[in-house]
Amino acid sequence: MAMTEEEFFGVKPTAFLDDIINCSDDYISDLADVAEETLLREMKGKISAKEVGEGVDKFRTILQAAADKNLDTFELYVLKNILYIPADVSLGQPAAQSLFTEEDEKQLDEELEQLRAKISALEHKKVEMQQSLTSLQVDISHYEEVVPLLENISKECSVDALTSSVRQMEEKVKAVEAKCKETRSTMQTETAQRMLRKRVAGGDASPNRLLKRHRAMIETESLSELAAMLC
After folding, report:
1. 14 vs 78: CA distance, rounded Å
2. Cβ count near 107 (within 10 Å)
3. DSSP assignment, residue 94?
4. Interior CA angle at 7 toward 105 and 3, to 5°?
5. pLDDT tens figures, 124-141
6. Which secondary structure element, helix H or strand E, spans residue 203, and what is its range?
7. Over the stretch 22-40, which tens digit does the pLDDT of each residue have?
8. For the chain, the helix, strand and coil percentages under 3-state DSSP, each to the nearest 5
9. How far lies 173's CA from each of 159, 180, 181, 183, 187, in Å?
């Protein structure tokens, strides 16, 4: 069986032309309605609504007649010269029907949607992994900068050397504390001697007795107590 015009063009010629004519009628009707609304608004008080309606109807009739005449010519031309297959032209056999049912196509569409969702999820995962990789590369770069410094410090400063340095610092601190203690004792002794000389000069007792007394106190008591007694 030979292929029909509808099968060849993918549309029925007469139905296609009817749709064009119906669209033209709708456009003319919409145009007339807009023209009437505009005239009623712009010509308010100048002409009555009845006169506007009558004028728009006449305009619609004239426009529709012109469109019908031109569309009739267009329909005849298309059916004769465009959507037309001469009798002596063979179009061959119609295409074989699809092996897939509507249910198969629906299932295939669902599978495609699932695959699209998986692809989208994988793309998001890829972005996250790329960000993590970038962060790791930065950390590795910092680590590579620090490692040589740590190795140099480890070579230059061994544990034994650090321990020896700490001990030397402790000895120096102890020496400074001893020196401070000695200096404090010397200052207290000098203070006691000055006070003693003042008391001798003031006639409180004989020099020999005071010297013997304070020498015994220095030997048996702390210098701080002696200074307190002299004050």
Report:
1. 10
2. 12
3. P
4. 125
5. 888 888 888 888 888 888
6. none
7. 999 999 999 999 999 999 8
8. 80, 0, 15
9. 21, 11, 12, 15, 21
